[in-house]
Amino acid sequence: MPREQMKRILYIPFDHLHRNYGSLKDADPNNDVIALVESARMTTGRNWHKERLFFLISSARHFAQSLQQEGFTVEYVKAPTTIDGLNTITTKHNLPITCAEPSSFTQYQQLKDHGVTFVDNDFFLTPRPLFHQWASEQKSYLMENFYRKQRTRLNILMEGKDPVGGSWNFDKENRLPPPKKYEGPAYLEHKRDEIDNQVAQELGHTPTTTWATTRKGALAQLKNFIDNHFAEFGPLEDAMTTDNWALHHSLLSPYINNGLLHPSEVIHAAVKAFNTGKVPIESAEGFIRQVIGWREYVNGMYWFLGPDYRNNNQLQATTNLLPLFTDPDKTQMNCMKQTVTDINNRAWVHHIPRLMLLSNLALITGTNPQQFLDWMREVFIDASEWVMVPNVIGMGVHADGGQMMTKPYAAGGAYISRMSNYCKPCAYNPKLRTGETACPFTTLYWDFLDRHKETFAKNHRMSQQVFGLNRLSDLPELKERAQEVLEGLQKGKI
After folding, report:
1. Which phi and psi (to 5°) does residue 328 adopt?
2. pLDDT for 352-370, tens place per residue?
3. Quick check: pTM over 0.85?
4. 186 three-state secondary structure
């Protein structure tokens, strides 16, 4: 197509990879030049997990190829920064740039300053102004309240004004521990093609077969979840086991977060499966809540709370990031060794290890929230900025003083023992809070409550736990052991 006939450059960030949404929904090969920029800042600016980089880059290159096959003029450039890349493209095509609203404050400001025209970001089910309106009307930002409004607004799992099954939430049914020696259906493996191999070679990385890098592969992953895992998802969604690295989790978050799948497609498939009797209500509701409730809520809160929210440190946590987070050989704690090994292998563990192991340990050790946030951003395949900032600062380490969550998610070894099979072969006993074999989670949980008792005594959801400190006859010994544990963790010896 002659350049003079083109009207716009459509810039496609690497998390907007869907033909029917964002700036591409009304794109025309006769009018639009497609721009994708693989920036050095994105690829080398931080210590990103290579599996994450492989997934993002290969997905973008496959997407660019699919648009070329459709007849678009596609400019895929490598550049030091996104703006440098756009300058290269506009030098070649002297046209205005349009983009769907970016997913992060930083990119939004950069593109705005560059003169990019924005269209609405419709990669979510809740427009940003609508969420802002809801949040502005709330005395407290309870996700459950937002979720119920979502169910009603979107008419999902509803019978008139009432929820299907007579309850909004089936959480109590979805807390089974892992079955012994459980073997579920096999996970889907994704074959690697020429583009995959080229990206892998450039990164010096041998990728797993866990993650698809095309829309076809993402749709196959969705079908596999619906057909083989969805029915069992709910009851076992909080379980952790060495026997099965994902149990029945969907493994769909990377594709929804980079655009290869749209949440509406996922919800449609889930509702259809429920309506046809393939899955019970507790699995259907539990999964749908994650997509239309928690995911939408977290994105909305990211934009509502503003760019300074990530700097919160209300508990004054100053401990440096523990060595075990980057090296599983730096701990004897079986649960942490297993979890960090899984992360190193495929850049993923499900939400309970993220919250009740990784974040819980960061919380009760007083780890600096920003250091922990940076690490979480780097190692997870689905760790978009908007995902991790509220999840870590608000939910994970309670650094916001309770803006998002009414209580900190602190727990001792008893929870881990109940919801996993990690403890039996471990060097530490979850029932003990003092002594050399005491579980570090148990010791540090009580020490955490003691350190912050004045703060949490005022919290109606924490006052009972704080009161429990008065029943500890060994509190002095516990506090002494807590210091030993913290020093040992910092040295990579516990």
Report:
1. -65, -15
2. 999 999 999 999 999 999 9
3. yes
4. coil
User: How much is the average pLDDT of 422-434?
Assistant: 96
- φ, ψ of residue 395 to 5 degrees: the values are -90, -45
Q: Name every residue whose Cβ is closer than 8 Å to that of residue 367 and which is 6 or more positions away in sequence.
A: 317, 319, 320, 321, 322, 361, 397
> Model confidence over 72-126: pLDDT tens digits?
999 999 999 999 999 999 999 999 999 999 999 999 999 999 999 999 999 999 9
Q: What is the pLDDT of residues 265-303, one digit of tens each?
A: 999 999 999 999 999 999 999 999 999 999 999 999 999
Structure tokens at 170: 């089936």
Question: DSSP per residue over 404-447, as a string?
Answer: S-SS-----HHHHHHHBS-STTSSSBTT-SSSTTB-HHHHHHHH
Closest C-alpha to 372, from 384, 360, 386, 356:
360
Please name the residue ranges forming H helices in 33-78: 40-44, 50-69
Cα–Cα separations (whole angstroms), residue 323 to 1, 27, 383:
55, 48, 21
d(CA 54, CA 91): 29
- DSSP conformation letters of 125-151: SS-HHHHHHHHHT-SS--HHHHHHHHH
Domain limits of the chain?
A: 3-119, 128-305, 311-491
Are the C-beta atoms of residues 349 and 343 closer than 8 Å to each other?
yes
Distance CA 88, CA 84 (A): 6
SS3 call for 11: strand
For strand 158-159 and strand 162-163, is the pairing parallel, antiparallel, or unpaired? antiparallel
At residue 1, does pLDDT exceed 60? no
Confidence grade of residue 43 (pLDDT, cut at 50, 70, 90): confident
Alpha helices in 72-192 (DSSP H): 82-92, 105-113, 128-136, 143-154
Tell me the C-alpha distance between 494 and 437, whole Å.
10
- Summarize the confidence of residues 216-235 as an average pLDDT: 97
The CATH architecture assigned to 311-491 reads Orthogonal Bundle (1.10)
CATH of 128-305, one of 3.40.50.300, 1.25.40.80, 1.20.1250.20, 3.20.130.10: 1.25.40.80
